[in-house]
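Please decode residue identities from the backbone states below.
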């Protein structure tokens, strides 16, 4: 099970997570998030991490120029688009940064996955190859980080695993529920932020340790 811990803001935490064996860390560049990382801090974090830890930059309605500069200076491996970016934006981003894999975040609400199928068809028509889709809970006015869970069993029924990119499950996950979430939603990977924090933006390493163990041992 691929595990990403999102919202890392300092080198000490980043290196502790690397020692635990997380697969990826998220560097959040969205100014509206309590987990936003400073540009200089993001550069330092990226420089100190071992190569095997994937550096994911999280962006919300940033311009392609902003993403390109940030990706270069912060040595990002993946990009996570968490805003309202249309398929054409994804296509142009991939054209300009072909060496970076792209995760498209999607918020699941009462309409289940809404027009995700149409979105992915448009991406394919533009020859966009998404690395994964990250599904989070839909909360009005927020682009993620709400701590709300998605309906896991409904997601498993709605997600077209054979035709769509690998599924990353996010939204309200913690050490207590991640095992059940994985059994129910059957994702390729999981993403956690608030569920392993002692306060907004502050990671609790023991909670990460428990989360990682439970995610990797879910059956």
């Amino acid at each position: 099970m691929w595990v990403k811990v999102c919202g890392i803001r300092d080198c000490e935490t980043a290196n502790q997570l690397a020692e635990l064996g997380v697969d990826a860390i998220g560097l959040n560049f969205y100014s509206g998030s309590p987990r936003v990382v400073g540009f200089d801090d993001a550069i330092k974090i990226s420089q100190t991490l071992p190569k095997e830890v994937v550096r994911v930059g999280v962006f919300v309605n940033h311009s392609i120029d902003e993403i390109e500069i940030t990706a270069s200076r912060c040595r990002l491996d993946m990009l996570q688009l968490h805003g309202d970016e249309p398929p054409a934006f994804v296509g142009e981003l991939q054209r300009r940064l072909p060496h970076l894999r792209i995760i498209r975040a999607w918020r699941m609400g009462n309409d289940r996955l809404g027009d995700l199928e149409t979105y992915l068809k448009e991406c394919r028509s533009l020859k966009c190859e998404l690395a994964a889709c990250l599904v989070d809970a839909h909360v009005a006015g927020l682009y993620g980080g709400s701590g709300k869970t998605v309906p896991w069993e409904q997601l498993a029924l709605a997600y077209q695993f054979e035709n769509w990119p690998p599924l990353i499950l996010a939204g309200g996950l913690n050490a207590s529920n991640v095992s059940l979430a994985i059994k129910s939603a059957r994702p390729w990977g999981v993403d956690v932020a608030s569920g392993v924090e002692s306060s907004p933006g502050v990671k609790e390493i023991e909670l990460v340790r428990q989360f990682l163990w439970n995610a990797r041992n879910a059956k």
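Observation: The chain has a mean pLDDT of 93.
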